[in-house]
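Write out this protein's structure.
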Amino acid sequence: MHNNAEHSVDLRSDTVTQPCAAMWDAMRSAPLGDDVLGDEPTV
C-alpha cells in the first residue's frame, strides 16, 4: 500500500484547504459574470 498523504487535497472544509499559487492565479484571472443575467461565461 502506498502513502499518498503528501499528494492528497483535503476538501472537507474551507478552513483546512489552502489554495496553492496556481489556484490563486486561476481565481484572479477567471472571467466574472452573473448567471442570472446571462453573462457568466463559465455556466
